[in-house]
Design a protein that fits this description.
This protein has 376 residues and is an alpha/beta fold. It has two domains: 5-130 and 318-343, NAD(P)-binding Rossmann-like Domain (Rossmann fold); 133-309, 2-Layer Sandwich (Dihydrodipicolinate Reductase, domain 2), CATH 3.30.360. It is built from ten helices and 16 strands. A hairpin with a 4-residue loop joins strand 10 (220-227) and strand 11. The protein is globular, with a radius of gyration of 21 Å. The N and C termini lie far apart (57 Å).
Length: 376
């Protein structure tokens, strides 16, 4: 008989909560059972226990790990202030990890996290739910199989709300960079420019975001990343292009891919559109964007439209949770692995390192692991 995996949840109600539904990620996943919750806020802990139907509640996650000895731990807080000690404690206890993004706020912390997981012999998957939606997964398979010819270029942009620039780079850039890696493999170099208003950003512009996610700077960023086979990706973000009640952020957030024979657009909450030409030709009425329909994703069994906007995060979490279990049993990396999250951190930190060296193209992995906003 195949084993049941005992899952514990670590949250922090006043410090980033349970991320994007990580407390419920393993609910409904075959051969997984949530057995305990830790939260340093007693009120939040009681609420989580009730929500998950769990009686074993701890205000100290270290006590939970010592007494319950779970197989898998969900590390939920969005804040990265306790990310390293939480991961190190879980890895030392031999627990595989499903972790909220970003993996870390600095490359040095990401290195520590991966070293702890390697030493503990545990797998770590990161909650990049967008890539786990069925249309995106199918499109990634199609692009990698060169269904539309070679991939040439990708343009990525986040929501560009008030967090645009430095905060978006690590908050939503992580999702976008995760998909770039899935499409094109590991990044090989980064080059970037960062602005604050109309001037170049400096190290003195370093600040914290609306939540602690590591050092950030700038309200406008333009970055280029290089990948194998000549693929280049372009990332742009400018604060306040989306304003609440005026422009839906979904009208800005997404990826656009140029292949030899077609363009593809990845659009929230996981839709894919294909245009049968490598460039948009506005004078051609016979060319239009075609939505790629996935029967059991876009429709109910009764073929009624499914409200995927409500379901994409829970479905993404369950998909990634099930994949983590499969990765444990098959001794492989999860498809949103810690290794990929380290590359994402390289890309984020590479943006700052490039800008502060006058836009030089810097090879990835970065030689200097110190964050350029906090080191002279």
């Amino acid at each position: 008989m195949k084993p049941i995996y005992r899952v514990a949840v670590i949250g922090s109600t006043r410090k980033g909560g349970y991320g994007h539904g990580l407390d419920t990620a393993f609910q409904g996943v075959a051969r997984a059972k949530i057995v305990a919750v830790a939260d340093d806020d007693p009120v939040g802990l009681a609420a989580a226990g009730k929500r998950l139907g769990v009686e074993k509640l701890y205000v100290d996650y270290r006590a939970l790990l010592k007494r319950e000895r779970p197989d898998i731990v969900c590390i939920g807080p969005r804040w990265v202030t306790e990310r390293v000690p939480m991961v190190e404690a879980a890895a030392a206890a031999g627990c595989h990890i499903y972790c909220e993004k970003p993996l870390a706020g600095t490359l040095a912390d990401a290195d520590r996290i991966l070293a702890a997981c390697t030493q503990g012999g545990v797998k770590v998957a990161v909650a990049h739910q967008w890539r786990a939606t069925p249309p995106i997964r199918q499109a990634i398979r199609d692009v990698r199989a060169q269904k539309y010819g070679r991939l040439l270029r990708v343009w990525a942009r986040p929501k560009d709300d008030a967090r645009g620039g430095g905060e978006e780079l690590i908050v939503h850039g992580t999702h976008l960079f995760d998909m770039l890696i899935a499409l094109a493999g590991p990044p090989r170099w980064a080059a970037a420019h960062i602005a604050v208003g109309d001037r170049d950003a400096t190290r003195e512009d370093a600040r914290e975001g609306t939540e602690p996610v590591g050092p950030i700077a700038g309200n406008s960023i333009a970055a280029t990343f290089g990948f194998d086979r000549g693929v280049r990706a372009f990332y742009d973000s400018t604060a306040n292009l989306h304003r609440a009640g005026q422009t839906p952020p979904e009208n800005l957030y997404g990826l656009r891919l140029e292949c030899e024979q077609a363009q593809l657009c990845f659009w929230p909450p996981g839709d894919v559109y294909v245009y049968a030409s490598p460039v948009v030709q506005p004078d051609r009425d016979d060319l239009t964007w075609e939505k790629q329909w996935i029967e059991d994703w876009h429709f109910t069994p009764e073929h009624q439209p499914r409200d995927v906007r409500r379901e994409w995060i829970p479905v993404g979490n369950r998909t990634l949770a099930a994949d983590l279990i499969a990765a444990i049993e098959e001794n492989r990396d999860p498809f949103t692995s810690g290794k990929n999250a380290l590359y994402i951190t390289e890309m984020v930190q590479g943006v700052y390192a490039s800008h502060l060296t006058e836009g030089r193209r810097l090879p990835i992995p970065l030689r200097d692991r110190r964050h350029p906003l906090t080191s002279a």
